[in-house]
Amino acid sequence: MIKALLSLMVPCGSVLILSACQPDIPETIQQGMVYCAEGSPESFNPQRVTSGTTIDAISQQLYDRLLDIDPATGELLSALATDWRLSEDGKTYWFTLRPQVQFHHTGFFSPTRAFNANDVTFTFNRILQSDHPYHGVGGGNYPYFQSVDWGSLVQAVVAENSNTVRFELTRPDSSFLSNLATDFASILSAEYAAALLQQGTPELLDQRPIGTGPFFFKEYKKDQFIRYYRHPEYWRGKTELTQLVFDLVPDNAKRMAKLLTHECDVVAYPRNAELKLITERPDVEVQSQTSMNVGFWAFNTKKPPFDNVLVRKALAYAINKDAILDAVYFGYADKAKTLLPPTSWAFYHDLPEQQYDPVKAKELLAQAGYPQGFRMDIWAMPVQRLYNPNALKMAELMQADLAKIGVRASVVSFEWNSFRRKLSEYEHDSVLIGWAADNADPDNFFRPLLSCSAAESGSNRANWCDPNFDNLINQALLTADIKQRRSFYLTAQLYIDEQMPLVSIAHSKRFQAKSVKVTGVTINPYGGISMAAARKSL
Amino acid sequence: MMLHYFLRRCFLISFVFVALTVLAFSLSYLFPGDVLTNVSGLTEIRPEQRQTLIKYYALDQSLLQQYIAYLNRILDGEWGLSFSSQQPVLSEIIAVFPATMELASYALLLSFVLGIPLGLFAAVKADSFFGRLISGITLIAYSIPIFWWALLLIMLFSLTLGVLPTAGRISVLFDIPTTTGFMLPDIWLSDISYKSEAIIDALRHLLLPAVVLATFPTTVMIRFTRDSMLAVLEQSYIKTARAKGLSRAQVLYHHGLRNALLPVIRQIGLQFSTLITLAMITEVIFSWPGIGQWLLDSIYQRNYPAIQGGLLIVSCLVIVVNMLTEILHTLFNPLARKA
Question: With helix as H, strand as E and coil as C, how does A326-393 read?
């Protein structure tokens, strides 16, 4: 009997191994693509999140927006809105909506009508009206819209008829259209929301999504994978892919291994240290894109001694950015002068670069009344992000730099969720973190990071509220003239440089590694990745 | 006689269960943070909910009554909510548990199929080259750290040769509906058109983790089979059987193996806790979505209700298996029944 078992096992084992060489998989699966992502989504509703991981996984795949951004030029393109116009006083926008756009038909919801103006009003009124039945569902937080202060900007969203929507603003705002084109302003289904409300399960709106995007939601196994199928009635035309799976692999090394064994077709965020290794493989291709992001070191400007501008400047002089760029970004990043990356139209090219000068730093510290230095904490985020691939290492380098001017820094880190919570409660002295822009507008850097409203909502990591600065960035929005806007932003950059609420460190490039069989997946510099144009050759 | 034995066993085991639940119960108080949050798993408790919840969880009463309420909830299947997903802990456990059982049982099966014949062979040919070779390899395999062994296999079969996948139970592109939670039966029960491809794919995913996990129990099996077989072969009844004219094979099978395997059965129970620990390590290395990976994630996320539930279920499983093998051992062994 034992012999029989053994004799069975040998051929079985060889079949298992040989079968790898001759895949005999049905076509529905061959046209499926696996994208290996670095983390799990927090929600399936882009309105409710800011994390790039979540946006990559959900926004462009499941939803559409009224407008899109051309990734090449940064210009606005029509999407669900075919046309838009602005009133004379710059305070009212009209959007004409695209007809015959179908929502997803899934196992849990069957739409009876096409997309219309009600879906747009529902989507935005949920955010704006605090008495809206959906406003408080899931906590009532809409971090992106809060950070750009939509509550005070948008007065009303009105459906004039089934294919025209009117937005009434309290003041002219030249970044308004850019905000509508971000991944966060995805359009939800009002019909689905009403059905869920009737069932008494409104929270499912954010967990089992219905949108108009190129793929529809099939299932999500927490921390394992998300499965999407092709939306057969997508208004831009059916995608080539029949199935799209986001395999959730937080471990960097495992993600690389899965790329090499072809378990992943596309891999997000390959480690900079490994880029060289994988570019040598013939079956793998590495893509890169200068991305709209910035990694910075923010001081809690309400806490002494960081409330003293001399101290902040001294610390900025003490940091050797070149060493950081080499050791943390492996040279795959541009040194940052200011918050804006050099590709932005408002970038201040003539801004003097922050020098590495420990002697000057010591002088400034002495002037500020700390000739002996002081103790401080550097909070380093525990996760890898594009704008900062290894905050702990960066913190350790900075610790050594700071020791030279007599500042004794300790590195602090927590689990990511508690880390962000404690940050928004401003428990930190200083923090290494960053920002990835959601649209091409420079306002998207200044307002969410350094405005007073961001300080209130907890996303201003420097806890910095300066009326002068707020005034500058508000003025910039009141005009549509790009030259005027630019001059306001240049002044704003100069002002940040003087006040130094944070030290900008680097603008990182974003990388993605993919199998050469996959085409049509490009990195979008302004936000989430899109698989709509992806195809896989066999 | 047998009934008496069962009753005694059950009585003993109930003490172990009480101790276990007391430990799990006290964790809610020993973990940092709000006790009500730890007990219920609700991360956001509104002030107006608080009183009702305190009443519901009997937190306003004595510790003993709280413990009794806790036991009642455990028996009712109400194990609190997971912090990270806000889903019931028990349903999460039910979702991940079959994956672990599947992996562990295939590994155990593999270790029987390989371990017992090899152990027998090593005993019968104890002095030959192959007998020594088996003993030598067994010793090496026994001492090898499992994570290193797993990485070696991944390096060879997945990264260098590219023939086996590195992670998961099946390619994520295969959409297999969950019915039993066990992958192979699920594929069998599903109404997909590509069943055989799916089964082959699942087996390819299973191969490396099962081999890695089977390594340790196989070595234990070989060593025990070999040692107890050697001991049995020394017995006079074997010599008598040979003298009666039975063939070598008959003697080995009827008189040798049956007696030699008795202590081996007992070993399974004793090694089971090691097997579960190793299964957890294997799961993490191969991203096998079982209870080990789930529990380690929970520990990393400080997900206290999940840690509590996971701890309880894993330790109960180890105890139950221990008891079952003891009973099996007794059933097969008349000597133990009398003792």
Answer: HHHHCCCEEECCCCCCCCCCCCCCCCCCCCCCHHHHHHHHHHHCCCCCCEEEEEECCCCECCECCHHH
Q: Is the pLDDT of residue B111 over 60?
A: yes
Dig out the tokens for A112 from the structure. 């009876």
- The whole-angstrom separation of Cα A37 and Cα A57 is 8
How is residue B81 annotated by DSSP?
B
Interacting residues of A186 by C-beta distance below 8 A, sequence separation 6+:
A45, A46, A47, A59, A62, A63, A64, A65, A123, A211, A213
- Record: contact B287-A29, CB cut-off 8 A: no
| Distance from the A429 Cα atom to the nearest Cα atom in chain B, whole angstroms | 24
Round to whole Å and give the CA distance between A470 and B198. 59
Is-contact A227 B175, C-beta < 8 A?
yes
Q: Is A11 on the interface with B (CB under 8 A)?
A: no
Name which of A277, A293, A372, A270 is nearest A339 in CA terms: A293
Q: Which residue of A has its CA nearest to B198?
A: A25
User: Does B7 lie at the interface with A, CB-CB under 8 angstroms?
Assistant: no
Asked if A245 lies within 8 A of B154 by C-beta distance, the reply is no
Per CB-CB distance under 8 Å, the chain B contacts of A261 are 158-159, 162, 164-166
User: Do residue B166 and residue A221 have CB atoms under 8 angstroms apart?
Assistant: no
Q: Cα A427 from chain centroid?
A: 24
Three-state secondary-structure class, residue A97:
strand
Ordered alpha helix ranges (H), B125-194: 129-143, 146-153, 183-189
Q: Which residues pair with A385 in a beta bridge?
A: A388
- Residues of B in Cβ contact (< 8 Å) with A5: 113
Nearest by CB to residue B197, choosing from A25, A254, A258, is: A25
Q: Say if CB B228 and CB B264 are below 8 A apart.
A: yes
Here the ipTM equals 0.81
What is the enclosing helix (H) or strand (E) of A155?
A: strand A154-161
Residue in this structure with the two tokens 């680097």, named with its chain if needed: A506
Q: What is the pLDDT of residue A494?
A: 93
Calpha distance A372→B202 (Å, rounded):
64
Going by C-alpha positions, the residue among B160, B161, B178, B156 that lies closest to residue B169 is B178
CB-side exposure of A514: number of CA atoms within 13 Å?
21
pTM for this model (two decimals): 0.80
CB distance A269 to A386 below 8 Å = yes
Contact A16 B171 (CB under 8 A): no
The residue among B108, B138, B114 whose CA lies nearest residue B126 is B138
* pLDDT tens digits, one per residue of A4-58: 444 444 444 444 444 444 445 566 677 899 999 988 888 999 998 877 888 889 9
**How many whole angstroms separate alpha carbon A432 and alpha carbon A382?**
10
Distance, CA of A532 to CA of A525 (rounded, Å)? 16
The reply to whether B165 touches chain A by the CB within 8 Å rule is yes
Least Cα separation, residue B30 to chain A (angstroms): 20
Q: Which of B106, B120, B161, B172 to mutate to test the interface with A (most CBs of A within 10 A)?
A: B172
Average pLDDT in the A424-448 region?
87
Cβ of A24 within 8 Å of Cβ of B197? The answer is: yes
User: To 10 degrees, what angle do helices A443-450 and A482-499 make?
Assistant: 40
Work out the minimum CA distance from B317 to partner chain A, whole angstroms: 25
Q: Does residue A4 belong to the interface with chain B, where contact is any CB pair within 8 Å?
A: no
End-to-end Cα separation, chain B, in angstroms: 11
| Residue A130 neighbours by CB under 8 Å, 6+ apart | A136, A140
B204 interface with A at CB cutoff 8 Å? yes
Taking an 8 Å cut-off on Cβ atoms, the answer to whether A263 and B301 are in contact is no
pLDDT digits (tens, 9 = 90+) for A145-186: 887 788 889 999 999 999 999 999 998 888 899 889 989 999
